[in-house]
Design goal:
This protein has a single domain (8-132), classed as PH-domain like (Roll), CATH 2.30.29.30. Helices cover 28% and strands 41% of the residues. It has 4 helices and 7 strands. The protein has helices at 83-87, 105-128, 132-136, 140-147, and strands at residues 8-14, 23-32, 35-44, 48-58, 62-70, 73-80, 95-100. It has a 4-stranded antiparallel β-sheet, covered by helices on one side. It has a 3-stranded antiparallel β-sheet with strand order 5-6-7.
Length: 148
Amino acid sequence: MPSRTNYISIAFKIDGSQTGGFKTVDGMAKISRAGIVVEFEAKIFGIMKTGIKEVRIPLAEIEEVRVGRKFFKHTLEIWLNNFRTLSEIPNKDGRIILQISKEDRTRAEQAARVLQTARSETDALEILNSPVSRLFGDDEETKETENE
């Protein structure tokens, strides 16, 4: 059944290896051309809940999104270029690793394509709207052409 929203929702878990071992995280990632909204709740020692938290990740802060598989677990891995945003979500080695169900893998791949396409289009628009001097920089060949 087609989605009635402009985003793709994917349920996820983050295990203790990313949280220091004493808490697990359950959540929902809502992925669109504008970025990702991550809603999650941590459970400390599996019993004490921290409350629901929401983190918005704009498209401009997303460097890469990749769907992977590690030890029979399917993952959606997200690299960011903003440390402040990254620090708001449990992460490991500078990336957010969301464990997803096998059934959601196809949706995660679709979401990754949506984000990569949106990033490519945004990058292309930035190039089109950039002054020529910014595109070529201050290298010697550019200077020689200007002097002729």
